[in-house]
Amino acid sequence: MSEEKFNYSYSAPTENERKEIESIRRGYLPQEKTYSKLERLRQLDKKVKTPATAVAAIFGVAGVLVFGFGLTMVLQWALYVWGSVVAALGAVLMVAAYPAFNLILKRNKAKYGQEIIELSEELLGDSK
User: Fold this and answer.
1) Can you tell me the distance from the alpha carbon of 35 to that of 13, in angstroms, rounded to the nearest whole number?
2) E strand residue ranges, 36-118
3) Residues 38-57 pLDDT 10s
4) Does the pLDDT value for residue 111 go beyond 70?
5) Distance in angstroms (rounded) separating the CA atoms of residues 114 and 103
6) What is the DSSP letter of 76?
7) Cα separation of 16 and 25, whole Å?
8) What is the rounded distance in angstroms from the CA atom of residue 79 to the CA atom of residue 121?
9) Cα–Cα distance for residue pair 97/67, rounded to 1 Å
10) Confidence of residue 2 (pLDDT cuts 50, 70, 90)
11) CA-based nearest residue to 54, from 104, 125, 6, 124
12) pLDDT of 32 above 90
């Protein structure tokens, strides 16, 4: 009979591999929501400003594209009436971007303003 051997090899991850493994692992662990007051203040500020900026950018970009299409209709295809109508629609979208920004910003300030003021007063009071 032949002697059966069991071979086992083990290699530990290097320090860089260990760090990478831990960073991937952290992405799948349940997140604890332990924010500092300053982090919470920053998050609230983003909640106020980001939606307003996004909507205004969408209106502005869509308006520029529609306006450009209207100009193309006039200059390339000689569709003067329809091109003018489409370009005017694009101009209206561009002009509507600023009031839409202000409307959404005002609504979000009303929604989150009190909490932002309270948090900022706490932070300013702690630093004195």
Assistant:
1) 32
2) none
3) 999 999 999 999 999 999 99
4) yes
5) 18
6) T
7) 14
8) 60
9) 14
10) low
11) 104
12) no
Longest Cα–Cα distance of the chain, Å, equals 99
d(CA 50, CA 44): 10
Find all residues with CB under 8 Å of 97, minimum gap 6, and list them.
Answer: 56, 57, 59, 60, 63
Q: Are 53 and 104 in contact (CB under 8 A)?
A: no
Q: How many CB atoms lie within 10 A of CB 118?
A: 12
Q: Measuring CA to CA, which residue among 90, 52, 49 is closest to residue 72?
A: 90
Between helix 37-75 and helix 80-127 the angle, nearest 10°, is: 170
Using the structure block, give the residue that is written with the tokens 């006039």.
Answer: 74
Q: What's the predicted TM-score (pTM) here?
A: 0.71
Vertex 52 angle, CA 51 and 53, to 5°:
90
Q: Which of 19, 64, 41, 66 is nearest to 124 (CA)?
A: 41
